[in-house]
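re: that chain from earlier
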Amino acid sequence: MARIDKIKEEIGWLKVIFGILIATDISLIAWLVENFGKVKISLLIVGLIGAFLVTFTIVWIDNTAHRKIDELEEL
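^ sequence. v structure.
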Protein backbone atom coordinates (compact mmCIF):
# COMPACT_ATOMS: atom_id res chain seq x y z
CA MET A 1 0.00 0.00 0.00
CA ALA A 2 1.35 3.40 -0.93
CA ARG A 3 2.25 5.80 1.85
CA ILE A 4 -0.44 8.29 0.78
CA ASP A 5 -3.13 5.60 0.92
CA LYS A 6 -1.98 4.53 4.38
CA ILE A 7 -2.20 8.10 5.68
CA LYS A 8 -5.68 8.49 4.16
CA GLU A 9 -6.82 5.31 5.91
CA GLU A 10 -5.42 6.55 9.23
CA ILE A 11 -7.28 9.84 8.80
CA GLY A 12 -10.47 7.89 8.05
CA TRP A 13 -10.14 5.90 11.28
CA LEU A 14 -9.40 9.06 13.23
CA LYS A 15 -12.61 10.60 11.86
CA VAL A 16 -14.63 7.61 13.07
CA ILE A 17 -13.08 7.69 16.53
CA PHE A 18 -13.49 11.47 16.66
CA GLY A 19 -17.22 11.20 15.88
CA ILE A 20 -17.79 8.51 18.49
CA LEU A 21 -15.96 10.51 21.14
CA ILE A 22 -17.90 13.70 20.31
CA ALA A 23 -21.20 11.83 20.74
CA THR A 24 -19.97 10.28 23.99
CA ASP A 25 -18.80 13.62 25.34
CA ILE A 26 -22.06 15.38 24.52
CA SER A 27 -24.06 12.58 26.13
CA LEU A 28 -21.91 12.56 29.25
CA ILE A 29 -22.08 16.32 29.68
CA ALA A 30 -25.86 16.26 29.14
CA TRP A 31 -26.19 13.54 31.78
CA LEU A 32 -24.10 15.59 34.22
CA VAL A 33 -26.24 18.68 33.68
CA GLU A 34 -29.49 16.75 33.95
CA ASN A 35 -28.53 14.90 37.14
CA PHE A 36 -26.51 17.60 38.88
CA GLY A 37 -28.56 17.74 42.07
CA LYS A 38 -29.98 14.22 41.98
CA VAL A 39 -26.99 11.91 42.39
CA LYS A 40 -24.19 11.46 44.90
CA ILE A 41 -21.24 13.81 44.66
CA SER A 42 -18.87 10.89 44.08
CA LEU A 43 -20.76 9.91 40.92
CA LEU A 44 -20.65 13.51 39.71
CA ILE A 45 -16.91 13.64 40.30
CA VAL A 46 -16.38 10.43 38.34
CA GLY A 47 -18.57 11.85 35.56
CA LEU A 48 -16.60 15.09 35.49
CA ILE A 49 -13.31 13.21 35.34
CA GLY A 50 -14.69 11.06 32.53
CA ALA A 51 -15.89 14.11 30.60
CA PHE A 52 -12.49 15.75 31.05
CA LEU A 53 -10.67 12.64 29.81
CA VAL A 54 -12.95 12.25 26.79
CA THR A 55 -12.56 15.94 25.94
CA PHE A 56 -8.77 15.68 26.27
CA THR A 57 -8.81 12.64 23.97
CA ILE A 58 -10.89 14.55 21.41
CA VAL A 59 -8.33 17.36 21.36
CA TRP A 60 -5.48 14.84 21.04
CA ILE A 61 -7.16 13.04 18.12
CA ASP A 62 -7.88 16.38 16.43
CA ASN A 63 -4.22 17.35 16.67
CA THR A 64 -3.16 13.94 15.38
CA ALA A 65 -5.51 14.23 12.39
CA HIS A 66 -4.16 17.70 11.58
CA ARG A 67 -0.60 16.36 11.66
CA LYS A 68 -1.60 13.57 9.26
CA ILE A 69 -3.26 16.10 6.93
CA ASP A 70 -0.10 18.21 6.99
CA GLU A 71 1.87 15.05 6.21
CA LEU A 72 -0.34 14.53 3.14
CA GLU A 73 0.50 18.03 1.90
CA GLU A 74 4.21 17.18 1.97
CA LEU A 75 3.78 14.12 -0.27
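The two ends are 15 Å apart (CA to CA).
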